[in-house]
Design a protein that fits this description.
Low-confidence stretches: none
Helix content: 55-70%
Structural class: mainly alpha
Number of domains: 1
Mean pLDDT: 92
Largest sheet: none
Strand content: under 5%
Length: about 300
C-alpha cells in the first residue's frame, strides 16, 4: 500500500507538541508529580494564537519575520525528513544539504530577531546560540555525509530506507556512533538538558529561551510550534537510524517509528531528570565530542 507523501510533515505539525508533552510528563513523573496533561502544549498554542502581539518601538520588520521564518523553515525541514517507511514529500538527491541550510536559515532569523530588540539579554542569548551552532552544524553535516556514504545516495529518504537489520549487521559500529552523535545534536539543537533548560527563568543561564523573551501572542505561538516541529524532525532522523524496522509496509514501519518517537520522548525526559545543566564552557566540549563521533563513523564507512 502506497502512503501519501505529505504524511511526514503533517505528523510533525500535529504531533510535535505531543512529543514536548511526553518529555514534560516524564520529567514530572520522575519528580513524583502528576504533571501537565498531554494536551497542554496544544492548549497553550490555542491560547497564544487568540492573544494580540505587542512590539517595541526599537524593533523593525526583522523582529516580526523571525517567528514566521523560523516556523516556515521548521515545516520545510519536516518535509525533507522521512518517517519510518513514509518517504518525505521533498525527496531528491542532495536534500540532506538543503536540510542543513534550511535549519541554519531558521537559526539565522531567530538570532536577527533577538538582536533587533536591542536587549542586552536577548543579544547574549543570540551570541550563545551562534557560538554553539559552530559545533552542532558540523556534527550534523558530518553525520549526514557518513549516512550518504553508507547508503550510496544523497537523498535522506533513500538513505534512511536502507538502514535496516542488514545494514546494522554490516556496519553496526558506524551506525551506533552516528546514533550517539545525533542524540547529542538532538538535545543541543532543541535546547534540552544538559545543553540548555527550556523551563528555566534565569536569564543569565538561558540560551534559546532568552532569545524569545520579547515575543508574545501569535508570534510566541509560532516560536513554540516551530520548536516542537524541529524537535519532531530531529527525532524522526534519529529514530530512522535507531529503529531499523523495514517490513516493506509503510504503515507498519510508521507505527514502529511512532513507538520509537514515544520512547525518545521518554528518554529525553529521563536524561533531563537525571542530569544537571552543563556549564557554558563545557558545552562546546560535548558538541565537539559529537562531531568527533561523526568523523569516526565516516572513517569506518570509508574503510
Amino acid at each position: 500500500m502506497t502512503a501519501p507523501r505529505f504524511v511526514p510533515p503533517l505528523l510533525a505539525l500535529a504531533c510535535g507538541p505531543g512529543l514536548v508533552a511526553i518529555v514534560a510528563r516524564t520529567k514530572a513523573r520522575m519528580a513524583g508529580r502528576v504533571g501537565p496533561p498531554l494536551a497542554q502544549p496544544y492548549r497553550d498554542l490555542v491560547k497564544l494564537f487568540r492573544k494580540g502581539a505587542v512590539y517595541g518601538a526599537t524593533t523593525t520588520w526583522l523582529f516580526r519575520a523571525g517567528p514566521i521564518v523560523g516556523f516556515a523553515t521548521a515545516a520545510v525541514a519536516a518535509a525533507l525528513v522521512p518517517f519510518g517507511g513514509l518517504a518525505a514529500p521533498l525527496a531528491f538527491p542532495g536534500d540532506l544539504l538543503l536540510l542543513a541550510y534550511v535549519l541554519a536559515l531558521g537559526r539565522f532569523f531567530a538570532v536577527l530577531a533577538a538582536l533587533d530588540t536591542g536587549s542586552s539579554f536577548e543579544g547574549m542569548g543570540a551570541s550563545r546560540e551562534a557560538s554553539l551552532a559552530v559545533f552542532t552544524e558540523p556534527a550534523l553535516v558530518l553525520a549526514l555525509v557518513a549516512l550518504a556514504r553508507l547508503g550510496g545516495t544523497l537523498s535522506l529518504s533513500a538513505m534512511l530506507a536502507g538502514v535496516g537489520p542488514a545494514a546494522w549487521a554490516a556496519a553496526a559500529p558506524a551506525l551506533a556512533l552516528l546514533v550517539a552523535a545525533l542524540l547529542v545534536v538532538f538535545l543541543a539543537e532543541n535546547g534540552r538538558l544538559p545543553v540548555d533548560d527550556p523551563t528555566t527563568h534565569l536569564e543569565l543561564t538561558m540560551i534559546h529561551e532568552v532569545m524569545v523573551l520579547d515575543h508574545g501572542g501569535p508570534d510566541l505561538a509560532l516560536v513554540g510550534w516551530g520548536a516542537a516541529v524541529r524537535l519532531w524532525t530531529f527525532g524522526a532522523l534519529l529514530v530512522g537510524l535507531a529503529v531499523p524496522v523495514r517490513t516493506g509496509d509503510p504503515w507498519v514501519d510508521a507505527a514502529a517509528a511512532l513507538g520509537g518517537m514515544v520512547a525518545l520522548g521518554v528518554l529525553t525526559g529521563l536524561v533531563e531528570s537525571s542530569m544537571a545543566r552543563l556549564r557554558l564552557r563545557h558545552v562546546p566540549q560535548l558538541l565537539l565530542g559529537a562531531a568527533v563521533l561523526s568523523v569516526l563513523a565516516l572513517f569506518l564507512v570509508l574503510r
